[in-house]
Amino acid sequence: METNTLIATNNSGSLAHDVGPLKNWLLKSGIGEMQLIHLPSFKRVLVVTESKEAASQLMSKKGDLGDIRLRYTLTDTEGALVNPDEEMGRLQVPPHKRTFLISPPTSPPPEFDYSRCEEPPDRVGPTDLSGETDFEESETDNEGQRTLLSSSAGTITIKPAETLRDRKQEPLPHTALPPKSIFDEE
């Protein structure tokens, strides 16, 4: 797929430090305006042309480059070189009106008594709560139905299944042993 941007690379990585041979070749090609974006950490140079046609003309002449390889990028590059009438596709810096200072919370006044700030938690054990419960203990009636909890909010009961006693115990399926590893000791 043709785009207006080319990626220039080479095997030796010298393109990351010396863009001169590529720059001279681009000047001799006479294609028109171009923008070089040097990416030394990626060992690449991006060549942005005015149009896809200019990039395809450069690709047709790439045999004169030697060990430098050219490839198309996946998408077109947009910017002032391609569309000079468009504004930049970046957010504008907001106008400087006023700066808000966010300060930490204020410390308490000097007469503040830290010992009265909070009381320790109550020390109540489970035996102390026996008189405060408003639910009944679990009961079982003659049908096997068991009441777990009965309170003013509701009642929780368990009724055993009638078909459970008649059901035969099914044997559990046997599973295969996992394969032995060559690292297992025998």
Automatic annotation (TrEMBL):
Looking at the record's lineage, which domain of life comes first?
A: Eukaryota
Query: What Gene Ontology biological process does one annotation of this record name?
Result: calcium-mediated signaling
* CC per GO annotation: cytoplasm; nucleus
Which stretches are tagged as biased composition: Acidic residues? 131-142
Q: Which InterPro entries match?
A: Calcipressin
Region Disordered: which residues? Answer: 97-186
Molecular function, one GO term = calcium-dependent protein serine/threonine phosphatase regulator activity
What family is this? Belongs to the RCAN family.
> What is the name attached to this protein's record?
ZYRO0G16214p
Q: Which organism is it from?
A: Zygosaccharomyces rouxii (strain ATCC 2623 / CBS 732 / NBRC 1130 / NCYC 568 / NRRL Y-229)
